[in-house]
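Look at one record.

>
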Amino acid sequence: MNSFCKTASEKQNCLAIQITKIVCFLIIFGLSVFIITQNMKPQIKKNQNFLSNVTNVESHNTDLETDQSEEFDLIQVITMTRHGTTTPGLLFPNDPNREEWERMGPPETLTHKGVREHCELGRYLARRYGQFVTGRVTHNKKTKIWSTDKDRSIAAAYSTLAGIANHRHQKIDCLSNEWIANFPPISDIISPGQNKGVNNSKQYQQKQGQHFSYPLIDSNATFMHRSAWINCKKLVHLNEKYVKPKRFEDFQKNSHFYQHLSRVVGYNITNYDEAKSTYESYLTEREVKGHFSGWVDKDSIEYLRKLYLHDYDLYFPAKLNEKLTAGPTLAIIVRKMQTILSQLHTLFEHSRSKHDENEDEGLMMLFGHTSSIMAVTKALGIRLIDLPDFAATFIFEIYSVNDSAKRLNEQSDNLCGQLWYKTSLDIEPIELETCKKVSGIQIRGSKCCPISKFISHLQKMSSHSYEKDCRLDGGNLK
C-alpha cells in the first residue's frame, strides 16, 4: 500500500485506484491478445448466397499482377457475360417510370447504368489479369469478341472493352456522362461476319471521342439467345411436348396471383413471359434509381422472383433440353481451350520461344443474356439460388503448372482449369462435379482442376454438330 495512504479513508481510496489500474491492464491485455489472434486467422469472406453449391472461401488477392507465382502461368481466359441493366421489355400502364423508359430508347435498351456496369466489369478484368487482358484488347491481337445480335448485348461488349482500355488510358473515362453521351452507333462497332480486323479509323475515333481502338465485335452468336432456339427442330418438338404444357399448367395454378398482378400493373397478363416483364421493370427501377417506388407490392415482387427462377426449371426439364440450348456455347468454349492446349504442345515440340501473334488464343469474350447464363448453369449442373445479376459473368481460366517440359509434352495434368462466377458483389469459385474428387494445385485460394477432368465436364454437354443434333430423325444426342 502507498505510504501516503495512512488514514482509513485514504487507504480505501488507494485500494480503489489499485483495483482500477489492474482492471484497465487486464482489459488492454485482453484486447491485444484478441487482435493478434484475429490477424493470425485466415479472413473469411461473407457468403453472398448466389450459388447454392459453393461454400465460403478464404479471401485471396484476385489481381494476377500482384499474385505471381513460379508454380503456374495463366495461359487462357474465357468470359461469358449477361448484359447489364436495360429498359423493361414491356411497359405497363401503371408503371410511374413509363415515360422515362420510353425516352431512353426502345424496350430492352442498355441504360446508362448498364454501360457503367460493363465499364466496371472491364476495369475489374484489367486489374485481375493486367497485361494478359489489356494487351489483347488495346493491342488488337487476334482476340475473339462474341455477342448475340441484340443491341443490348453488343453495347455491353463495347462498354466492357472500354473499361479494359480505361485501365491503361485514363482519357477513356467510360463512367462519365460525356463518354456515354458519345456512345457509338451499334453498326460501327460490329463485324458483319468473322472478326477480321479492328476499327482504327482516326476520323471515327475523333468523331466519337473514345480514344481507343478495339477488336470488332462478332454479333453472330445468336445461339446464345432463346429466340434462336426455335430453329432447332428437336428442341421445338421437346418444348411443344413437355415444356409448353407444363408452363401453361403452372401458370393456371397461379391464376389468382396473376389476376391480382394484372390489376396492379394495369395490363392483362396471360403468360409467364409477361409476368416476368413485371419483375424486370422492378429490377430496372431499382438499378437505375437506386430504389423501388413500390408501385408493385413487396410480396408480389418476391413471388415473381421465385416464379421467374421456377420458370427456368420448367424450361430445362431434361439433359437433352440443356444440351440443345447450352451445347453450341459450350462447344465454342471447349474448342477454344483445345486450341490453346494444342498450341502449347506445338510450342514445345518445335522449341519456339513465343507464339505467333496470329495464333494467339489467350482471350475470348462472349456477351449474351439471362437465358445464356441459365442454360450453361443447367448444363454444367450449377444451381443458382437467385437470378443472375446484371453483367453477371462466368470466367474460365486455364493455367500451366511450371514443373518440367516433359510433363507438358506428355499432356499430363500439369495443366488445369478454374471456373469463377462474378456478380456485382463478389466473385466465387465453382467446383465442377467431375473435379470434386480429384486433387489439384491451389491458385487464388481455390483448387485448379486437372485439365482432363475440367474439359471433359464441359465436353459432355457440348454440341459440336448442332444442325445434326437438332434433326428430329437423328443426331448424337441420347
